[in-house]
Here is the input.
Amino acid sequence: MWQLYQFPLCPFSRKVRLVLGEKGVGYEPVRESPWARRDEFLDMNPAGQTPVMADDRGVVLIDSVAICEFFEETVSKAALLNGTAADRAEIRRLVAWFDVQFFRDITGPLLHERMLKRIVQRATPDSTALREAMKAAVAHLDYIDFLLDHRTWLGGATMSLADLAAAAQISVADYLGGIDWKSHEQAKRWYVGMKSRPSFRPLLAERMEGINPPPEYEKLDL
Here is the structure.
């Protein structure tokens, strides 16, 4: 049995969990707070970052991109990198976009201000940083609207790893109150569809201690 070291609001762990759910891979979630710098966890991943997956054969997988592609290569169910080489390159580009740009502009600042400052630093959030993150979210939702104006899914004709990477980041930002869906009907319909998938429901039911999401977080009628 695989074990997935993660914490509820890690967007990269959420991406992996969505992949595992779509592919029907069983695993045991193990709560890990990377800011605690636990010695046993650092022995597995010296970078001290989640997610990490390990099994009873001694296999250890580190980094969400490597983990997702490992299961894409080893589990044929629900292929998430489809199409031609150019199609797959576009999916990978979008995965990187959400993992890097969206996290840098939105999810990362929200996690720092609304989670780490509260439960680790016992500090007050910076209102300017929060406003900038929410402003950036509008621009990223505009881009999602643009993609969906030209495609059925973010990466092309079928659901792909790009959709899971985007939904994972957005779900954390939404939990932390950083998403305003006004004027983003395309993005909202797409996200409601993602939230409705069986792979997504366990994420929506999970909570971070001391931090409650907005009332509409779990709703499917944004």
Summary: Residues 82 and 88 are 6 Å apart (CA to CA).
